């Protein structure tokens, strides 16, 4: 694991954007795994700026997102589909057909989860996976207790995640209680991983991820077993 300590959210976002930008311009074909949430927002903003200023063609880039809420259609402003278009896809010249997120309103969700893993496999796997981390050390929506071998699956969100995500909704009752999420096995198959964490609220999760026991009770601890993980964080007193 590699650790980059930065001063603040802005520096974290800029460093991450540069890494992704370099990957994009230095590849003939690239599969990017993308995250949503507050953490990567500014990274997407910087990345879109860099790509547009340099007139980078993105037809060789494919994206697969980590997760989507069950019950929210892509037109729903709270959906991750909507977030990604608003914050990134619509701002750059990526062909929309190259961008994939789970379908949270699929009639057969089990079939959708299988199809999502097949789709990732058919793309040749994820080259670079961007991750955030939850306060309970979840990655994607893999809550404590999720099997390390899991593929894409339907998840019951924990109370702590529902509360954390309530800030994006008018009232807590509006927060979906289920999501479709890439599994920990899916994430571990990525060739390289870039995890971003900002703010003291993520300190315990980072400590447990880096130094704790590798256990399904701490989903992010599985990353200790991945050979190419870079963490960028502004959280103080985090060491390898
Ligand atoms: C989002 C995702 C989640 C978030 C995590 C942190 O696609 O997979 O694991 O990365 O919940 O969320 P924020 O960044 O809002 O603190």
From TrEMBL:
<protein>
    <recommendedName>
        <fullName>Glucosamine-6-phosphate deaminase</fullName>
        <ecNumber>3.5.99.6</ecNumber>
    </recommendedName>
</protein>
<feature type="active site" description="For ring-opening step">
    <location>
        <position position="136"/>
    </location>
</feature>
<keyword id="KW-0378">Hydrolase</keyword>
<comment type="similarity">
    <text>Belongs to the glucosamine/galactosamine-6-phosphate isomerase family. NagB subfamily.</text>
</comment>
<comment type="function">
    <text>Catalyzes the reversible isomerization-deamination of glucosamine 6-phosphate (GlcN6P) to form fructose 6-phosphate (Fru6P) and ammonium ion.</text>
</comment>
<comment type="pathway">
    <text>Amino-sugar metabolism; N-acetylneuraminate degradation; D-fructose 6-phosphate from N-acetylneuraminate: step 5/5.</text>
</comment>
<dbReference type="GO" id="GO:0006046">
    <property type="term" value="P:N-acetylglucosamine catabolic process"/>
</dbReference>
<dbReference type="InterPro" id="IPR006148">
    <property type="entry name" value="Glc/Gal-6P_isomerase"/>
</dbReference>
<dbReference type="InterPro" id="IPR037171">
    <property type="entry name" value="NagB/RpiA_transferase-like"/>
</dbReference>
<dbReference type="GO" id="GO:0019262">
    <property type="term" value="P:N-acetylneuraminate catabolic process"/>
</dbReference>
<dbReference type="GO" id="GO:0005975">
    <property type="term" value="P:carbohydrate metabolic process"/>
</dbReference>
<keyword id="KW-0119">Carbohydrate metabolism</keyword>
<dbReference type="GO" id="GO:0042802">
    <property type="term" value="F:identical protein binding"/>
</dbReference>
<feature type="domain" description="Glucosamine/galactosamine-6-phosphate isomerase">
    <location>
        <begin position="17"/>
        <end position="227"/>
    </location>
</feature>
<dbReference type="GO" id="GO:0004342">
    <property type="term" value="F:glucosamine-6-phosphate deaminase activity"/>
</dbReference>
<feature type="active site" description="Proton acceptor; for ring-opening step">
    <location>
        <position position="138"/>
    </location>
</feature>
<dbReference type="Pfam" id="PF01182">
    <property type="entry name" value="Glucosamine_iso"/>
</dbReference>
<dbReference type="InterPro" id="IPR004547">
    <property type="entry name" value="Glucosamine6P_isomerase"/>
</dbReference>
<dbReference type="GO" id="GO:0006043">
    <property type="term" value="P:glucosamine catabolic process"/>
</dbReference>
<feature type="active site" description="For ring-opening step">
    <location>
        <position position="143"/>
    </location>
</feature>
<feature type="active site" description="Proton acceptor; for enolization step">
    <location>
        <position position="67"/>
    </location>
</feature>
<dbReference type="GO" id="GO:0005737">
    <property type="term" value="C:cytoplasm"/>
</dbReference>
